[in-house]
Amino acid sequence: MSSQDEQFRAAAPEAAADDGMSWWYRWLCRIAGLIGGMSCAVAGLWNCVTINPLNIAAGVWMMLNAFILFLCEVPFCCQFIEFANAVSARAEKLRPWQKAAFYCSMAAFPVLLSLTLTTLFGNAAAFATGVLYGMAALGKKGDAISYARIHQQQQQKQMDEEKLTGDTEGQA
Q: Is the dihedral of CA 68, 73, 75, 76 positive or negative?
């Protein structure tokens, strides 16, 4: 094992813990990426069996999407490709909102290119992967007690401001 591999392993958990995603949500995103990649690959192959050039272009793009999803989310599916681990490591360093924007735009392009049921349903799971990462970028939902305290502080502040304006109007 080289020193570069040791540095990568030391830095990988640090980057993964930085985004604030829980382990089960991270696995949910990975599984959605796997399902999205499979649906893009099957629908892309099906879309290429036609004579319409836009459908063929959309099908090729969908198969490219499937390859990218497999490479970024489930690199063990691409274990015989030399650069798979490097691409996966770089994808791990991206923030959730960056992954969301990339996956959603990547899935929307074939639909814009050729609007058919095959492209819609084939890219739905890939788009859902982007949506899941987008929800992770929004962060965790707060608890009711902290929201109640914030609301109470805002009301108190508003009442104090009303008292101050009421007193100054009465004096003038």
A: negative
Contact 104, 126 (CB under 8 A): no
Which structural domain range is residue 93 located in?
21-170
Assigned domain for 14 exists: no
Residues shown for the chain: 172
Q: Work out the angle between the directed axes of helices 96-113 and 117-138 (0-180°, nearest 10).
A: 160
User: What is the spatial distance between Cα 168 and Cα 105, in angstroms, rounded to a whole number?
Assistant: 56
Give the tens place of pLDDT for each residue, 48-65: 898 889 999 999 999 999
Cβ contact 62:111 at 8 Å: no
Residue 9, domain member (yes or no): no
Residue 124 lies in a domain: yes
Give the residue among 45, 88, 37, 39 at the shortest CA–CA distance from 66. Answer: 37
- The total number of structural domains that make up the chain: 1
Q: Which two tokens stand for residue 163?
A: 């008292």
Q: What is the DSSP letter of 114?
A: S
For the entire predicted model, the pTM comes to 0.68
CA pair distance 122, 68, nearest whole angstrom: 15
Give a yes or no: residue 16 inside a domain: no
Reported as a single tens digit per residue, the pLDDT across 10-41 is: 444 444 445 677 888 888 888 998 999 999 99
